[in-house]
Structures are given as C-alpha cells and as structure tokens.
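Data card: per-record layout.
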Amino acid sequence: MTYRQLYEYGVEKLVEAGIDEAKLDARLLLEYICHTDRNTLLVHGDSERNEMEEQFYRMCIEKRATRIPLQHITGEQEFMGLTFRVNQHTLIPRQDTEILVEEGMRHMYDGMRILDMCTGSGCILLSLLKYSNECEGMGVDISEEALKVARENAQRLGLKAEFVQGDLFEPVPEKKFDMIVSNPPYIETAVIETLMPEVREHEPMQALDGMEDGLFFYRKIVEKAPGFLGKGGWLLFEIGYNQGEAVSKLMTEQGFKEVEVVKDYAGLDRVVLGQML
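The structure for this 277-residue chain is written out next.
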C-alpha cells in the first residue's frame, strides 16, 4: 500500500470507532511508525510502504480504535517543547498544564529549590529545571511505577532531579523550598464515570480522583505547604475549571498572600498561585 492509502485506511477505521480526531491520530500514528513528518503525506503520499510498516500500522490503528490513548501506543507526549515518556502509570501531559509551568517560570530565579507534589511523569518539574539555571528539584508521588517513568524522563533530558515515593509530604526532608508546584488529583469521584474512555479506562485512577468534592488534595497540600516553604516561597496549583474560588479561599485562609487565579487558553480558570510572606 502507499503512504496515502495507509493513512486513508487509518482514518476510516478510527471514524468507524468514533474517535473525534480520527484524521490527526491516523496521521500521527503513521508518522510514528514510518519515522516521517507531516509533510510526507502531501509530498510523498504515493510512496510504497513495506509490509512490516503496514502490519504495524494496522495493529496500532486497531489499538487506537479500542480507545487506548495515542500516547500509550507511541509511549511519548510532547510538553513544553520537550518529549516525555508516558505509560498507563502516569497522566498524559496536557497543553493546559503548560500554564502551570509558565506561571512557575514567571516567579523563578537561579538556584531555586523546587518541590513537585504528585509529580507523575515529572513533566512539570523537569520542564522548570530545563528552562532555568542551577535549580534543584524534588518530585514526590505515591506511585513507584510513575516515579520510574519520571526518573527515565530526567535521564533522557540530561537533568538531575530527586524523585521519592510517599504520601504527599511524608517523605519530604525538613528543608525549605522556594517553590511548590502541584497538579494533584482534582476530579470529583462522581464525575469520573463521565470522562472519555481514554481517560477513565486507561489513565491511573489515583492521579484523577480528588474525592467527593475534588478538593481533598488541595486541602492536604495547602495545610502542610507553609512548613516546607521558605519566606517568600510560592505555591502553585493546577485546578479544575470550577475550582478557582474554592482553592483561592483555602490558600488565603492558610496565610498565603498575592493569591491569583490564572486562566488557560480557553479562558477557563486553570492555575491558582500565592506567596508565603
């Protein structure tokens, strides 16, 4: 089959399976398998592909048609211009989370000590370290399997970071950090069943479930964070679209100043941050 014929086959199968972005996913999987780029379909669409590529492509399309996330098939996702390894033990990095990193960068300076709570793939912490100078970073997660991915990502990016397993602040040493960032589980338990199958069935439940009202982990982190922040230190959260007011109130009541809600590219509340003065 030609490159274009394979692409058209993939689109047809994914449309039949009800995949919203069938054309995009069919193209990305083809590029992944053939080691090509987006221009190949336009410029070299008539090129013949070998039997191995065809069989591998058909297999990947079948996986995607069963709602396995594209990133779990390819094993990677781009975030902040960097490529991160991901699997079923980590959340897939999303563009909205880049807002959290960008806000963190606004308040960074050389030599900062950064703590990433619920680090997952490590994409937030490692992005901050990549785009800064001489900063130290620690990532904490309850999942050792997720931490294996984070450590692999650090190695692939040539970055030094410490990743430790434990329940929130439990394994964190008694030293002060200049910034704490977190994208904790924040989806209400009752809402999880309404999520897309790619999320509900394939991403780690413990990284999604924010308990009854979605605020469980915000309360825990806000309560303990002042004891781990130095004077002038920042606390930054990713939040759900409807949690800005509630998380802001938690931080203000705990003594954080300059509390601010930042919107994402869609105009929805996405980040809450404040400073411990």
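Known properties of this structure: The chain has a mean pLDDT of 95. The chain is about 40% helix and 20% strand.

See the next section for split statistics.
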